Prior knowledge:
The active site is at residue 79. The chain is built from twelve helices and twelve strands. By secondary structure, it is of the alpha/beta class. A hairpin with a 2-residue loop joins strand 6 (137-139) and strand 7 (142-144). It is globular, with a radius of gyration of 19 Å. Bound molecules: glyceraldehyde-3-phosphate, 1,3-dihydroxyacetonephosphate, sodium ion and zinc ion (ZN).
Amino acid sequence: MFAKAVEGGYAVPxxxxxxLEQLQAIVQACVESKSPVILQVSSGxxxxxxxxxxxxxxxxxxxxxxxxxxxxPIALHxxxxxxxxxxxxxxxxxxxxxxxxxxxxxxxxNIALTKKVVEYAHxxxxxxxxxxxxxxxxxxxxxxxxxxxxxxxxxxxxxxxxGCDSLAISIGTSHGANKFTPxxxxxxxxxxxxxxPLRFDILEEIEAKLPGFPIVLHGSSSVPQEDVDTINKFGGxxxxxxxxxxxxxxxxxxxxxCKINIDSDGRLAMTAAIRKVFVExxxxxxxxxxxxxxxxxxxxxxxxxxxNVLGSAGKA
Length: 316
Ligand code: G3H
Ligand code: 13P
Ligand code: NA
Ligand code: ZN
């Protein structure tokens, strides 16, 4: 997947799922736009939905895609694995790839942990994503208090010593729907917060040191203003929400960045749709009547990402 994406100048979408409707939307969107896809499961998702159930749902997703008429490449990936044991469990249970996120450890400890996961994973035909540099914001239960950009001078040593297959980097993205403080942004004519640009200079330095090596961007939601407005119009209270402008992600997708992680945008789209139903149709109490519209909104969002942002549409 990554070799084709680096060569083709696009990024494979990595979308998180925790439940049936999210998985349905991801598969439908990627089949309809003929995009390869990485299904991501976090440790929080495993706690929420049960690890066995999620794994078997992912298997079912492959059959579902076939039934929809297109055999798209589908990978099942552990998002933000934090221990060897968690990665091992996913490797043993048939995941295609795992992320070991040692970015909160020292450089040496990150290398040692990542190397240990790589040795086990490669012996089982599974690929590994490592991370260097700390994103701001919330990852699972870990709040990064001190974010820092990836240091280009460390990447060759990290990749060589660990043997990892792809590298997540920190160039200004972060997790969640509030990626920048209002103080870090400027306001446009409509009063909307405009964030500072990503550090493409750091990305270029990394690409120069590791030509063609697969790079991953986490925290790549754009936080669409329409969804924030809909949520707030129908009783929500989201404040100072700001994401990564799509233009920046389009540019990143053309580079060695070949996997782009998006979760928060999907959460916003589903929440907007559900809030709208609850306010407009207060008599509804069948979950299908609000989760259905949420699923449809999510599908449209992800088709848009594949077709207009990541460039993965038509690459299956
Ligand atoms: O990077 C985090 C992903 O959005 C997954 O979030 O850990 O709340 O499942 P989660
Ligand atoms: P967002 O919170 O920007 O959607 O990032 C998701 C992510 O990085 C999952 O690993
Ligand atoms: Na790319
Ligand atoms: Zn992430």
